[in-house]
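ok so for the tutorial part 2 we go from a plain amino acid sequence to predicted structure tokens. step 1 is just haveing the sequence, like this:
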Amino acid sequence: MKHYIDIQAIIEKDTDLKRSNAKCFEVGDIIQITEKVDGSNASVQKEGETLMAYSRKQPLDEFNHLDGFYNYVQTLNPADFDERYVVFGEWLRKNKIVYEKENMHKWYVFDIFDAIDEKWMTQDFVRQFCADHGLIYVNVLYEGPFISWDHCRTFMNSPHYGERQEGIVVKNQTKINSTMKGNPFYLKIVNDSFKETMKMREPKSQEQLDEEARLRALAETIVTERRVEKAIFRLRDEGVFPDKFAPEDMKLVAQNLPKAVYEDCVKEEKETVDAIGASFGKLCGSITMGYARKLILG
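step 2 — the prediction. this is what the tokens look like for a chain of 298 residues:
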């Protein structure tokens, strides 16, 4: 199965720990800005005369159905799909954001991958595909030339599906499928209340903060409540966690959640992980389980 792109959060300028990933966007490039929807990544691909349904990492069936997505796919017409295309969207279900009831348990398509030519299709193609086959195309906030990142941020509070908006996804259509190393053609900007990182609190003085406390403070900038929460939802989508937790499930959580958060940090925040060094694994586990007890047990 084809996995969706891991869309990076924007790093507009170089810092001591990170290099900018925004250099693929230049003034005048044609971009599209869509609302970042907080549901579950779900995809469809035709195999023979059958439509296969997938969560982010695994095939679905009548028993593992991603809160009804598999059942929804059974209502679609296989003749509307081509085996070469993997159609990606967001299956809107309860996560961090509570959306309007009428928008829930619907599939909002945002991308199509050509599995033969191994390339992402333009958004014009995706929009037309949705129109031709009665699918819902994700809410578009802007299409036109890239002006600046400040201009992009003006669309950060334009929710369409409910009262809150997680953020935006900015897609460079001029440089779609670009292989420019370290500079992706899709980036996301997340509103402050949903960010998976936070500003590091400055210690009052170096004397007051020993090395262990300093490293923990640094780890807490990336092992945040939001990142842990997203990992819980992701493991639920993958069938590792149940839809509803009981106190006895905490052993299962401890066996799986710290590893998932650790791997996500290594993938998304490698510079910070490397700066912390060998102690990051232990710190990540401790911080993760602290948030897990709060989120799961209340």
